[in-house]
Design goal:
Number of strands: 10
Number of domains: 1
Shape: globular
Strand content: 35-45%
CATH architecture: 3-layer Sandwich
Order of helices and strands: HEEEEEEEEEE
Bound molecules: FE2/S2 (inorganic) cluster
Oligomer: single chain
Length: 120
């Protein structure tokens, strides 16, 4: 028997499933306006500090294999260093060609000086 779940239904349940929050960095490691890549459980995560607010997303561009953490950050928008697609780090939405797929983002929590991200 094959069970098919629509992406909308999957996304609905994914956002409502309990998540494990894991430590990814400490606040002092990342100054405002800076980004860095963190390797975590086989994933490459982009962590960005935008005016003291932290954002986490996949570090690999959805177009080709470029590390977004080596790109450019302006407000909550990251620009790919290879072909220039821009992504909104809050929503993951792709803003420019040539990338067509949105970026996966992760919820971020602070626990004292620790930065935690939610993984499902
Ligand atoms: S690799 Fe990022 S836009 Fe091409």
């Amino acid at each position: 028997m094959k069970i098919t779940v629509s992406y909308g239904l999957y996304a609905y349940f994914r956002t409502r499933m309990p998540q494990d929050f894991v430590k990814i960095a400490r606040r002092g490691e990342l100054l405002p306006g800076k980004m860095k890549r963190v390797d975590l459980d086989g994933r490459r995560i982009l962590l960005a500090n935008v005016d003291g607010k932290f954002y986490a997303a996949d570090d690999t561009c959805t177009h080709e294999d470029a590390s977004l953490s080596t790109g450019f950050l302006k407000d909550d928008i990251v620009k790919c260093p290879l072909h220039g697609s821009r992504f909104n780090l809050c929503s993951g939405q792709v803003l420019d060609d040539p990338a067509e797929e949105n970026l996966r983002t992760y919820p971020v929590r602070l626990d004292g000086d620790d930065i935690l991200i939610g993984l499902t």
